[in-house]
Write a structure and sequence with these properties.
- The chain is an alpha/beta fold.
- The protein is built from 11 helices and 11 strands.
- It has one domain: Zn peptidases (Aminopeptidase, 3-Layer(aba) Sandwich).
- Strands 1, 2, 3, 4, 5, 6, 9, 10 and 11 form a 9-stranded mixed beta sheet that branches. It has a two-stranded antiparallel sheet with strand order 7-8.
- Helix 7 (about 240-250) links the parallel strand 9 (about 230) and strand 10 (about 255).
- The longest helix has 20 residues, at about 150-170.
Length: about 350
């Protein structure tokens, strides 16, 4: 009697639907290449050496240094030609009262590069970082300024640089891209939480948040982190898959850290936006380094060539999301994403 197993398997395979094609193409078109080529190490160094200088006194919340930083970021958004998206020009303003001190012109800084597609332009991708840090030690000898070059001056100047690169190129995203820097992350995600409750663009039409934090240092306490990026909560949504594809295209490794990817998902501004249902993640080079949250976090320790590579990866992933009709979704098979998925479904009842 003939062996019928191969025939049965073949018949079964006829009824197996093919895997859905990956909807976010990592193709490097000439327009996309021009954006990536415009990302400049020297621009990053120039901006970060100012933003993390002693003059800004650690950019504490609230402080004169924080106000100077906000004005500097707004000037860079103005230079790029981004549309103003705050309630006061580029500024989204509110009042913050510290436990000990007077109430104070805390401001998120927001600019937008409008989308080009008639339908998709009314959907938004947030590119974010926090521009505050720890301020100054009140007493003590020697250096008392927490300059915060990597945390998170590196993310802030990366947001500026990607905005400039995209706005100066012929490339125009189909979706609108919102460039935003937050105050008060070090006080408990205050600026991002304020935005989540008082959004300048509808949350239901915000398809993703790419947050950049600590993308400049490569001297990780676990070993040198060159040409490698981690994503917090990498398998919580499709965003991790998108950046893995972008990393393969650019030759930059994208990995899930076995401990820190999940732990640090809750430690940066992406968490405040994820609580609103937005697929939101942080890109990071070194989670921990020798002078994390110490006065030694200064700009000469930044690996600017590597930082430019990370920014190119961030930009390519953004363009992949911006130009696709598909939106990133939370991972329904990962229980850690369940609460965010539930919130997302309330915003998208037909999704």
């Amino acid at each position: 009697m003939p062996n019928l197993l191969p025939l049965l398997l073949g018949a079964f395979n006829l009824f197996v639907p093919p895997a859905a094609p990956f909807p976010w193409t990592a193709r490097l078109t000439s327009d996309r290449k021009a954006v990536l080529a415009a990302i400049s190490e020297s621009d990053l160094k120039g901006n970060l050496s100012f933003l993390s200088s002693d003059l800004l006194e650690g950019r504490g919340t609230p402080s004169r240094g924080l106000d100077i930083a906000a004005e500097f970021i707004a000037s860079q958004f103005r230079r790029a030609g981004l549309d103003m998206a705050g309630d006061d020009g580029y500024f989204q303003t509110t009042t913050y009262k510290p436990r000990n001190g007077d109430a104070a012109k805390v401001r998120n800084v927001i600019g937008v590069l409008p989308g080009s597609d008639p339908k998709l332009k009314d959907t938004y991708i947030l590119v974010t970082a926090h521009y505050d840090h720890l301020g100054m030690r009140a007493t003590g000898d020697g250096d008392r300024i927490y300059n915060g070059a990597d945390d998170d001056g590196s993310g802030t100047v990366s947001v500026i640089e990607i905005a400039n690169a995209m706005a100066a190129a012929k490339y125009r995203p189909k979706r609108s891209i919102v460039f935003m820097t937050f105050w008060g992350e070090e006080k408990g995600l205050l600026g991002s939480s304020y935005y989540g409750k008082n959004p300048r663009f509808p949350i239901a039409q915000t398809v993703a948040n790419i947050n950049l934090e600590q993308v400049g240092r490569t001297d990780d306490t676990e070993g040198l982190r060159v040409n490698a990026v981690s994503i917090t909560g990498e398998d919580y949504s499709d965003v991790g898959l998108i950046y893995e594809a972008a990393g393969k295209m650019l030759g930059t490794g994208v990995q899930k850290h076995p401990q820190f990817s999940d732990r640090y998902f809750f430690a940066s501004d992406n968490a405040a936006l994820a609580r609103q249902g937005i697929p939101a993640h942080t890109l990071c080079t070194a989670f921990e380094y020798p002078d994390y949250h110490a006065v030694g976090d200064e700009w000469p320790k930044i690996d600017f060539p590597n930082m430019a590579k990370v920014d190119r990866l961030a930009a390519l992933g953004l363009m992949m999301i911006a130009d696709s009709a598909a939106e990133p979704h939370w991972n329904e098979t990962n229980p850690r994403a369940a609460n965010y998925l539930k919130t997302w479904k309330t915003l998208h009842p037909a999704g």
